[in-house]
Design brief:
About 35% of the residues lie in helices and about 25% in strands. The chain is α/β, with parallel strands linked by helices and about 250 residues long. It has a domain at about 1-85 and about 160-165 and about 195-245: Rossmann fold.
Length: about 250
């Protein structure tokens, strides 16, 4: 059952097409995401996941179709669109000699926000970073801890859309499960979450919907909670191979 959400579509993509040197990377992509919803975009390397994120952030413009972030066209108003979104890459870069609190305060400053140390700790609490880690140098942080600082930045900015790129890659099972809880907590506060991932196992507990992307086309959209892990894997692999559902 989905948590309470805020009304309105945060992300809308209609018929988005993108070509590079005559090669179609996205082919008429349709995708929408509401406040408080977690959407997992599954697909192999080259399927178009990164291109989709770059369109949303305004680093690329669609050759056809439209992209809207909170009603804003990132192709024509990229700064305004990015103000509504927060992007967390697979590897979050932090200043190694600074603590989690110091990193968060600095990164918030770059976004035009002023956070007190106490306010920074509250955001890190919400992102799931343990109090005893918040004042330690980030040089000793694991990937999962770095991601939590990234999510704390999104929470501090009150970003309406959170973009995650392979968020569970390289995490051990315990850290991956904890990250799943962190993502669901962010969604429960009304943040829309779009994650590009290969992790079939974790999407069942994180995502409200799963989109299977193959060769730039959304070939299937699923409710992962209606399928057990084996059925989800079989169906997804079949779609990625271009086969009919088993």
């Amino acid at each position: 059952m989905r948590e309470a959400t805020l009304p309105g579509a945060v992300l809308t993509i209609r018929g988005a097409t993108k070509r590079f040197e005559g090669r179609t990377v996205l082919d008429g992509l349709d995708l929408s995401l509401d406040a408080g919803e977690v959407y997992a975009l599954l697909g192999p390397n080259g399927a178009g996941k990164t291109t989709t994120i770059n369109l949303i952030l305004g680093f690329l413009r669609a050759d056809a179709g439209e992209v809207r972030v909170c009603g804003i066209d990132p192709g024509t108003a990229p700064v305004a669109a990015r103000a509504q979104a927060a992007y967390i890459p697979e590897q979050v870069a932090l200043y190694p000699g600074h603590s989690g609190v110091e990193n968060l305060r600095y990164l918030a400053t770059l976004a035009g926000l002023r956070l007190s140390a106490d306010a920074a700790r509250l955001r890190l609490d919400e992102a799931g970073l343990a109090r005893e880690a918040q004042d330690r140098p980030a040089s000793g942080y694991s990937k999962g801890m770095r991601q939590k600082v990234g999510i704390a930045v999104a929470l501090a900015r009150r970003a309406r859309l959170l973009l995650l790129d392979e968020p569970t890659s390289g995490l051990d099972p315990a850290a991956s499960a904890e990250f799943s809880r962190t993502v669901r907590a962010a969604a429960s506060r009304g943040t829309a979450v779009l994650m590009a991932t290969h992790d079939l196992y974790r999407v069942r507990e994180m995502a409200d919907r799963v989109g299977v992307l193959r060769a730039g086309r959304l070939v299937e959209e699923l409710d992962p909670r209606r399928l057990d892990a084996v059925a989800l894997e079989r169906l997804t692999l079949a779609r990625l191979a271009g086969e009919a559902a088993p």
